[in-house]
Amino acid sequence: MSDDNVDPHAPRALTPEEKKQQKRRNMAVALALGAFILTVFLVTIMRLGGAVVDRSF
Predict the structure, then answer these.
(1) Do residues 14 and 22 make contact, with C-beta atoms less than 8 angstroms apart?
(2) Distance CA 31, CA 6 (A)
(3) Cα 24 to chain centroid, rounded
(4) DSSP 8-state symbol, 17
(5) Tell me, what's the pLDDT at 48?
(6) pLDDT score of 3
(7) How many Å apart are CA 29 and CA 23, to the nearest integer?
(8) Is residue 56 helix, strand or coil?
């Protein structure tokens, strides 16, 4: 009967192995996001090329 008051949506404590896996996934997502940002930056610079220097104000 004590299980009636347990919230099924409440977060549970992670085991040390789950914490390690979560940290590994977080690092992978961070590296992927960083690589995407770097790729967008480099493509933008390549497409602009010398146009940045030649523009008039």
Answers:
(1) yes
(2) 38
(3) 12
(4) H
(5) 86
(6) 58
(7) 10
(8) coil
Q: Return per-residue pLDDT of the chain as tens, 57 residues.
A: 455 677 888 888 999 999 999 999 999 999 999 999 999 999 988 888 867 666 666
Buried b / exposed e along 20-46 (16+ C-beta atoms within 10 A): eeeeeeeeeeeeeeeeeeeeeeeeeee
Q: Give the SS3 label for residue 6.
A: coil
State the SS3 of 33-55.
Answer: HHHHHHHHHHHHHHHHCCHHHHC
Query: What is the model's pLDDT at position 9?
Result: 87
CA distance 41 to 35: 10
Q: Which two tokens stand for residue 50?
A: 């010398």
**pTM for this model (two decimals):** 0.66
Amino acid at 14: L
